[in-house]
């Protein structure tokens, strides 16, 4: 009986010690859309596919010696005079 009282007291004491739970950002109605729950589940899958599949494939096909074989063309400069990063050129 003493063990039971001690366990109940310990559990009650530990549960009363918890702090206030807070979110990292404010909640708004956009998070209440039912498809947002689907997006929460699908987003990690897409992110993982990008980093584990697509980026390594792009790394291989964008090698200068393999670009002609795979038909890869370097990206255009999106901001006019901005030059894409080239590891061969000094900074």
In short:
The protein has helices at residues 2-16, 34-61, 67-70. By secondary structure, it is mainly alpha-helical. The termini are far apart.
Report on this structure.
The structure is a single chain. This protein has 91 residues and is mostly helical. It has a domain at 35-75. The chain has 3 helices and no strands. It has helices at 2-16, 34-61, 67-70. The longest helix has 28 residues, at 34-61. The chain is elongated, with a radius of gyration of 27 Å. The mean pLDDT is 82.
Describe how the helices and strands are arranged:
Layout lengths: L1 H15 L17 H28 L5 H4 L21
Based on secondary structure, the structural category is mainly alpha
Classify the helix fraction into a percent range.
40-55%
* Major sheet: none
Radius of gyration: 27 Å
* Chain-averaged pLDDT: 82
Shape: elongated
| Tally of DSSP β-strands | 0
**Ends distance:** 75 Å
Structural key phrases:
single chain, about 90 residues, mainly alpha, 3 helices, about 50% helix, about 0% strand, elongated
